[in-house]
Every structure is written in structure tokens, then in C-alpha cells.
Amino acid sequence: MWVRLPPISFWVSPALSYGGEIRPERPDRELFDRLAAETGETLISLYLPAHVRGAEINQDRIRLKNGISEADERLEEAGWSPKHRSQRLDSVQTLLEDEEFWRHQGLGLAVLVDEDGEATTLTLDYEPKELSAVAPVFHLRPLVPSLQATELWTLVLTKGAVRLYLASRAEARRAEADLPESFDDVNWFVDREKQRQRHPDHVGTNRARHGHEGGSWDEDLRRFMRAVSDALPEPGPDPLVVLGDDNLAGRFANIADGEIISPPNGGIGDVDDPVEIREKTIPIIDSYEESQLESRLEQAREQLGTGAGITDLEEGLEAAVAGRIGTLLFDRDAEPVWGEFDPASLAIRRHDERKPFDVDLLDRLVVHAMSTGAEVAAAPGPVAGHLFAAIPRF
After folding, report:
1. E strands present in 218-300
2. 191 or 78, greater pLDDT
3. Which terminus has fewer CB within 10 Å in the chain: N or C?
4. What is the pLDDT at residue 202?
């Protein structure tokens, strides 16, 4: 039995337990690798779509209950007694009545039960297909999209308040940063009584502007935005999302370092409402991920066109175990390809009908490719008409 360690990444959710109750955690690569190394006779994997809030949460309970029932049937097929089946599934059954647990969901839920009956619960950033599997290994490919979920720095910029969030499809989390509190926080020394806006007189000429030496509202705005820009994290390859005042967002893009994206109607009603921030940022995340994925798909199509790519599952499995795959794109919503696979002997057997304790061969391809250092990405559909496209290392 392995021991779950608390997450260590900056943007990973808190630990599973809070106030003695179980909470779903976000998958990270360390946890994925631990789960991938777990083996046994009857490891249980349950996946279902979930809801963040609302009456639909009751549907999620029903889905989990159905998944438990299916797992129970497979254990019964294997000759397990009612007592032993109940003991193995007890930790999952407990979740059905845990009201607080269902208040901490994302767009999907994974429940993985090890040989000791210990349940690992994971919140996902997309809606997986419902699945119940009992096998010698955990079913893990539905976790990949959440491992790679985009998180964008999101700046909420208004004259009255400045906030920085890290936003994903699932949530927006307030980030600690030494940002100016407001426009006035930066320009506190300006004498407002002496400062006057330039405006046209009755014949259309402009009157002189007065105020502090060299002062103007434009200079104050530039000073404010430069102070904000200087306090932000160093720009990386991903764009910075700017919400709040549309006029300020446009000006900020002219002075800030790095790529800036601001939606046409980025106004914010409450700068401290993470739900509103998340909802405003999701379309930008979707568009950004689509462009990134399309670039990868185009590269895969080029490689397939030259005959360098692999789309045959048996060939792909052998290449993955041998560490010969450099890049793997797979259809995240593809139905499982049930069968048997022995990575030691490379014996592969597909089954037209699912048999007890079968593994998903596409899942095994994904897991072995990741474990041997391949760059793996999930596509929301077939890859150039195939379940997957693997590009060998050169």
C-alpha cells in the first residue's frame, strides 16, 4: 500500500481531508505516476461527469451508485463473497452520504480504490464518460486532460481595485502578489485640486492644463499601469488575460510585456468573485487550447503523411513499452478497447466482448507512453481519423 502525500505544486488543491471529511483532489503528475505503478488483482476505477453546484449533484450520486453496482457485479463474477465485496467498496459507499463531499466537485469525478479498499478521489477539469472498471491496474487515461489543463494568469484591472487570479476551466484562485491596490494608491501624491483636464473652449481652442509638474491624467494612468505591470510575474509562453475596465485593458496591452488577451466585454461586476472571473476566462482558455491542439494535430498529420507515424494499437503498445514514442495524441472520448496486455512479454489480445478484469488497451498505450517520457496530449475527438497518432523518437 502506498501513502498519498499532500500536493506540493503551487496551484494544486488542498489535501484530501478537511475537518475529518474526504475531499477530491486535483491530479498531478506525481500522483499519476504513483497510480500508474499500482498493481493488484482487483483495482477499481470509477469515472463520471459531475457538477459544481445545483440540483444536478443528485444525478452525480446516482451515477456513482451505478458505478459501484457495476464494480460489485464484476467482483461477484470473480467469486467474491458479499462480505468481502462490501468491505472493498465501503469507502466509496460512504461518499454517497457525504453531503460536504458533493459540494467540492469539478466537471468530472474519478474514484480509484486500491487493494486495501482505500479510495483516492480526484476532481477533473472536463466531463469524462461514465466508466466502471475492475482490473489489475487503474484506468488512468481520463486523468490526462486534467493533468494538462490550461491555467492562465488573469489580471482584474480597474481604477478602484487590482487583483491577480490563476484561472482554469474548473476555478479561479486568488494569487498573492504585491500589486498596487488602486489607481489612487499609485498616484496618492498628485494634487487633484491643481490638476485640470484639458478641454475645448467656445471657439474650439484648448486651455492649458494645470497640476503637478508635468502632470496629466494620461501620465497618471501610465504610471498606474506600469506599476501594475512591474508587479506581475515574469511573462511566460502563455498569454495574460486582462479583465475589468475595457479602456484600461486596451491601454495596458500597449505598455505590458508579453502577450495580452482581453475579451470584448471583459467588465467585472465584483473583482473578488472567483466564479465571475472563471466564467469570463473560460472562453479565452477554450480558444487558446484549441489553437495549441490544432498546432499539434497539424504536426501529427504531417508525420502520418510521411509514413513516420503509428496508428496501429499493437504496434503502438510495443513502441510505448520500448520508449520509442516521442509524441502521442489520443482521442480522450474513445471507447475502451478491451483486452489483455502483458508488458513483460508484449503479449496482446483483443476481446470483441469485454471479459472480467480486462484492461483498456488504449489506456495502457497512454500510460506506458507517459512513463517512458513521451509528450502526451488528449484530443476531443479522433486524431486524423484514428484512435491515436504516435510519432516515434528520432
Report:
1. 240-244, 260-261
2. 78
3. C
4. 41
Q: What digits encode the pLDDT tens for the residues 286-302?
A: 899 888 888 888 888 88
60 near 50, Cβ under 8 Å? yes
For the chain, the structural domain boundaries read 17-147, 152-184+213-291, 309-392
CA pair distance 322, 332, nearest whole angstrom: 23
CATH number corresponding to 152-184+213-291: 3.30.420
Q: Are strands 325-331 and 375-379 parallel, antiparallel or unpaired?
A: parallel
- pLDDT of 390 higher than 50: yes
Which among 156, 122, 113 is positioned nearest to 12, based on CA atoms?
122
Beta-carbon contacts of residue 111 (< 8 Å; ≥ 6 apart): 44, 45, 46, 47, 64, 67, 92, 95, 119, 120, 121, 122
- pLDDT tens-digit readout, 260-289: 998 888 888 899 999 999 999 999 998 998
Question: 3-class DSSP state for residue 122?
Answer: strand
Pairing label, strands 162-167, 172-174 = antiparallel
Fold classified for 17-147 = 3.30.960
